[in-house]
Each structure stands twice: as structure tokens, then as C-alpha cells.
Specification:
The longest helix has 23 residues, at 436-458. The relative contact order is 0.15. The chain contains 19 helices and 15 strands. With 485 residues, the protein is an alpha/beta fold. Helix content is 36%, strand content 12%.
Amino acid sequence: MLTRDEVAKHASRTSCWVIIYGLIYDVTEFLDSHPGGADVILRLAGQDATDEYDLVHSSTLLKEAISESSRLGPVEPSGPTKFRSQLHRDNATLSATKSSLQVYDGETPPPLGVLINLDDFERVAKRYLPPNAWAYYRSGADDEITTLLNRRSYQRVLLRARVMRNVERIDTRTTILGQQTSMPLFVSPTTLAKLAHRRGECAIAAAIGAEGMIQVVSSSSSMPFEDIKQACAHSDQAFFFQIYINPDLHKTVALIQRVEKLGAKAIWITVDSPVMGKREEDERLKAEIQVGFVQASEQSGIIKEGQQVQGIGLTLRRMLSTRVTWDDLGWIRQTTRLPIVIKGIQSVEDAVIAYEKGVQGIVLSNHGGRSQDTAQPPLLTLLEIRKFAPFLLGRIEIYLDGGVRRGTDILKALALGATAVGMGRPFLYSLSAGYGEAGVRRMVSIMRRELESNMALVGATRLKEVTPQMVNTKLLERDLCYVKL
């Protein structure tokens, strides 16, 4: 049994030890293969890294990621850790991140019953999420113009209500890739949900299953896919799995085969981020924490003044490949028989190519405005498809995400030809403040009620009755460019 002082001596790239859950790990050989980069671990070298690890990872991941030979044994109990973790040392407010409630001002979060729209959930999340989690979740690229336009695009489409119809019973059921869902809304793949709640994606899975909906699980989830499956509300709950094509193609092949065996119903490939966007709010907060770390550090040689700092987003950049092309669909099809969806289509031209390549679905998405600022909103891309390639409608399933916050947003997307829409950030916000599964279900119930009431107001009792004649797109059409296919 080693002491913490002995562990602290191994705080360099050539000999890097960390303490996680009371056990000492020699992660020297693991540094360069860590998806977030070596610096993330080196900042905690020689220290107790449990808080940072537990914030974003499941305990079961240790056995998969680090070999048994790297586990050196337990650390000797010695009271408070001599070297407190970076976040907890330099930003005292983050000391509450291990609390299931994650309350920072000593007040109890408002009861769910008083939250009546998705903006309410966002305001609560801003108040109660750890600052680094809030910055990572909310931040968009550069000036965040696209993040704003995603939402405003829905405001530029008007509803044309029909009256004097029997709308006593409203049915929002539909299918996505042949899988039943209680409403045309799914959970978009999101990263690091454990920053919002200790159960992370597992809480979302349990809530979504109970609501009869579908979750698209991210390959960079903070919980293993196996744990998410176990958290399902019922055994036949449908899941889709999202991947980034890793620069190491063997890892991508192994991942696809693994999730297919575990019961994933489709593979969604994200293609809108060959490089990581510049998310300034995320990077700025990280920079402030780093500066405090440099000033307070009792160890030398790990981080130096002037060293470039990065936000949480950039720690995930190693998962991205800049060499992905349409030809990659060939070996992906040889890897799996599951339906394939391309996520990140941003123009009618690429929508047509995806259809010609034979994929089963496309997601019109600009990554929530987190990759390229001033990219056009997905709803505008859908209108572009409707005007210049209407033959795609009905021949391929079309989904979109980004900026959806109201039942009217879902209704407008469906009227223009979408099969379903996705939301990402709102599900993360609904987990925060200790709400967990109950928060997710409350938020879903709000969206369901808004969709049902607005379907009734336009005179539709089933989704098949939602037609293009129910929307006025003249304002949004002003933003269309001329396209010659």
C-alpha cells in the first residue's frame, strides 16, 4: 500500500500515476491513447483524479480502458488529499459537483411543476449546473449566430390553422426507421450527460423508455452502452447508436459490431464536424480555471505559463477524422446490416448524394451551431429540399435537430416533410439540479402537450393529416439561395 506522497512523485509524462476510487493506476502507457489527449491526464498526474473521472465516466469504464497490470493497488488512507484536483482547487463552486442535487447557492431547485416550458429548464440549468458543464453544453461556435438562427428560423414559418374539425382525440404516434415511437421527437446524441446528473445517459434512457420514445446514444456518452441498455424501462426499448468515424478505422469497426450485438437498431454517422468548432465560452472558462491552476500549483513541469488551454469540447477532438468521404459508406455497409443514417447534412446537394448512396435516413443538422458559425439553419435546408429536390420527400426519412424548443417547432418541421425532430441540449438541461429521470419526463410531457394542442389548433388529429398547406413559409423563403442540381 503506497502513500499519497509516493504517488505524487510520479507526476510526469515518463511516469504518470493517478488515484481513482482509492486505487493507484500507472497510466503512463495510456496517455497517448486517451481520447481527450494526454494533457487532460497530466494535469492530474500524481493526484487523486476521482472527482474529474467520476464527473464524466462510469466506474465500469476503468476495466475496459486500463489494463489490469496498470493497477498498482490501493492508496494508504491519509485524510484529505494533499493535492486536490484542479477544478476543485481553483474554482471553489465546483466542489458541489458530487452532490446529486448539484446546488451551488444553498437553495433547493424549484419543483418541476412550476417549470412550464423548455426555457425554464435552461434557466434552472444555468443556475445549478457546474460552471464548466454549463459552458460546454450551451456554447456555440464563434459569435454563436447559427445557434441563434436555428431557433429563429422556426419563428419565420407561420401556421395556417383550419377550424371546425373534430379534434377530440389526437394521436402523435409514428415510426422512425420502422421503430415505434409515441411522438415524432427523439433524443439527439449528446456527450457527457454525467456532467448534469450522476446517472447521465442512463437517466435519459429510463425516462425515454417510460415515455415510449427513442434515444440516439452517442459513442462519446459518459456511460457505457451496456449500462444504458440496463437502465431501459423495458427490454425491447429501441435505441439508435451514433458514431464519429475514428481516425483508427479498426476502432470504428469494432464499435459498430459491438453495439449491433447489443441490440442497436441503426447506426447514425455524424459528418458535420471533421474538425472541432471554436466554442469560445467553453474555452474561456477553461482558460480561467487553468490560470488559477498554474498560479496555485504546488507541482512544476506539468503546466507552464503561456501554455495553450482548451475547453471540454476540444478534449474530444481526437475522435474526429478529417478524411471521411462518401466512399466510407462502402466498408461501413460491409461491417453492419443495420440501417444507416447520415447526421449533419446542411445542403440539398448533399441530401441528394446521401439518397443516391442508399442510406436510410438523413439528419439535417449543423451540430447545434457548435461547429461552423453562420451555417444555415436545418429548417432552411429542409425548405431547400422541398423546393429543389421534392422527390426526396417520402423516399428517404428526413430528420432535423437544432433550435427545437416548442411543439409548434415539431409541427412546422413535419409540415415541411420531416419524419421526426431531435433535441439535445434540452435533455441535458432537464437532468440538472438533481431532477434526473423525473426532469426528463416532465420536459417530454410539456413538449407532448404543446404538440397535441397545436395539432388540434391546425385541425390535425394524426400526423398524416399534417400537410404543407398548414404553414406559411414566405418569410423563410427569402433566405433561400438558388440551387441548380
